[in-house]
């Protein structure tokens, strides 16, 4: 009886599930579709790229569909299809790198293959396959070995692959056909057609530039680090206004920087293949991005350790915290602000050192306040140095982070010169500058021996700025700028004079 | 006259360079050859892999050279060559992943392509290319879009590429040929032949297993970190016996760990495709390696910061250094020793927790000594807390590193169970154990209710060990192990009891 009941319950459950199945299936499918839609919306360039591949495929299919084209190329048209499928990469740099590698490798390997077949035919009927076999074995092995070399792997890996492929195919199939030259010509021309279609579609239909991606990625990484730094205050000193939950997501943003090296390397590598586009010239200093990224990552390493102290349950005496809270808050906040300005400078490709240096200056002043706070607080709390160790360590790492932020801003400044960033349109002393107030200003035309007057016509005057060094007092100081162009930099150098 | 002399000097210089050219060329070539030789010697598997590719190519060429084979496959043999070239990867996992992806994608796409051609033929002569074009465009775009999804990209990227390729080729060329089924059959069978040759050569001729590489890589990373930790002592307290130059190379070894994530991810991904081999079973916990690697990298991040303090020019008072020198040296040395034992445990695939825990214990004891040293030293040096901040920070980070080393050993112990590591063959009390001296030992056969006697025949005795807890005194303590197998673990648990 019990068994019977059990069976009934089971049957009812099964029927229930059978009834629910269509609605569950529908829910599952809707969920999937929504996921896919969200994925496409996150980066619409993915959808565009997919449509571009479809377009290239349709274009290249014309080699088959259009009778006159089919008559001249025949079944070799499928090499064009193959080329389109494998050469179509997401970025212009990727497509160009693959396309050019494929084109040149096919050309060289095809020529060598035809030569090898002719040479082998001299060895008679029995010798021919043996000689061809030796050629294919040795050249295949040598080209495969070359792919291990880092320099070749980085740039010509695909070319080496296509070299092996084409040489083997031409050499081996040359054994069975006499029209090897016609075949090689047809194949090469269809590959060129396929490659050209890909490259044209890639460049002229909503192009995705690897260089631009790299540029944005570096700027975004700096912003992430800045957000983490600014969130740190609210996380470590939760008495601040912001809620802890809100800042926590900010604080974790730096995590992705820790392991972004390979993505950056790949983009920098592809960016080299790209022609000039937008504000990026042909010889844009792509490798410099990697230097900036390296410093940003170093800074993120430090923040990772800092974050470890935030997450740990170690209790630090409240009176000690209250002493270091203000300078630490200022340090992290101003370092974050400085980084945001650096990122803005990269994003807009406009120099704006004044604002960056102002924030760095403030955070360095906070370091001094922190030192003073530590100095004055130590005699009272010496009874337990152990308790304040985590706090001291945290402060110490925060100082290192500020130093790194300064290094980043220096490297970006150097980079901005190489990458021809625009000067800020109006380099006048802005009221936010605060520390230095302009009292007098005049221009003097200098007499330079052997100076080409035409060349220097517009910029050969010296600017003398007289600043008010300490706003409340009246000690005056002269700064001699050499040219108007150098003016903002001069002031910047002066601002960063009091090295801490 | 002067001009004449100038020209003469130039000419002489040119002739000189012309004379030197052959010897220079020879030098250059010799240097290159030596470089290549060295590169091959560094990892002879590279040469072996190159020869394997040559071998596969030669084998697959037989489809052309041998008349009966050529009669049955014809020019489709070139698909076998193509498959061999693109599927031959360095590791077995890579070859299997590409081979299986290619095989299944060709099968599915080929079937769909034949279906599409039949469907298109129903639409009449004018409709056929339009319908085929729509099919190629939409399926090509959809498959390209699918390649953006991380899960598909990770495992089936190549399959999606081959799907687009095969479907487009079959559908488009189906427009111009009536023997589409014969063509599809020939192509599929040659691809299977090429793929099979590759996979067989890859597995049976000097195989390179991605899993084994991952296993060794993780162990080597741990050794690198251990070397850095052990070198740290000589670097930071150069009064030690070792010369600074010698240790410096050791200290820098951890650097490569900071950015090894992508290499580890790739290997773990390929290892999943590999069948069981050697001591690695089919369902070896490959993802656990990534967990260990993550902890090792975290530890390396900390060491990076620590190393920054070593390289900085900050001067720390000598009396403070002398106080923390000994515990810090012990901490880094013992943590390094513990890591070396962990690496040995992974390399040999044998558990040896006793030795690991002994070293961790010692380094944790050193943390206590360090705390005491800091506590006693603080009242005297409180006059300048600022000066000792770098030293305190260094010590604090070193403590974190020791904690990470303990975490690594715990995760590796958990992993050793999942990966079926061998127990250490002789778990008797070794004299090096030092802390616990065996005084008495006996076995008692327990009476367990409902115990299957046959099953427990060999291991159903209880061991009672009486240890001398503190060697110089005579306080005795009893430890009750349940079974002989658990004996070493019992002692280990006891050893780690005094948690710090």
Automatic annotation (TrEMBL), chains A, B:
Pfam family, one: ALMT
Membrane topology recorded in Swiss-Prot or TrEMBL: Multi-pass membrane protein
Any one Gene Ontology BP term: malate transport
Major localization listed first in the record, in broad terms: membrane
Biased composition (Basic and acidic residues): 479-492
Protein keywords: Ion channel, Ion transport, Membrane, Transmembrane, Transmembrane helix, Transport
Family affiliation: Belongs to the aromatic acid exporter (TC 2.A.85) family.
Descriptive protein name: Aluminum-activated malate transporter 8-like
Annotated source species: Raphanus sativus
Gene giving rise to this polypeptide: LOC108810318
